[in-house]
Write a structure and sequence with these properties.
The protein is mainly alpha-helical. The longest helix has 23 residues.
Length: 127
Amino acid sequence: MKKRDIIIIEILLIVLIYFIVNSKYINMVPKCWIYEKTGLLCLSCGGTRCMQNIASGNWIKAFYCNCAIFVSILYLVILNIVVIYNLGKENKKLTCLYPKWWYIIIFLILWIIYTIFRNLINIGIVI
């Protein structure tokens, strides 16, 4: 696949996600089962609102909805740009951003800690 084809496919996917997030169909996304049953926020609670705010340009509000998902999306966008830039090049730039197994482990640990603190703040234990 050529670099141009990949860029066109990604642009089409971004446009598709934008229209889905900013349409009436976003209300069809089911509510979080964990939050409904326990009252606790799961790892991805606020992710849909985060995507909606990113699509409408409210970056700060998106960060407050779920900062872990916001940072994940930001990382994936930057990584995607770097990978497309490096396609077909001998001297690749910023390869330190390429995912490594320990990046994922560190991120998951931080995401779990974030979720614990978020729930402690939500129930009023930590201010």
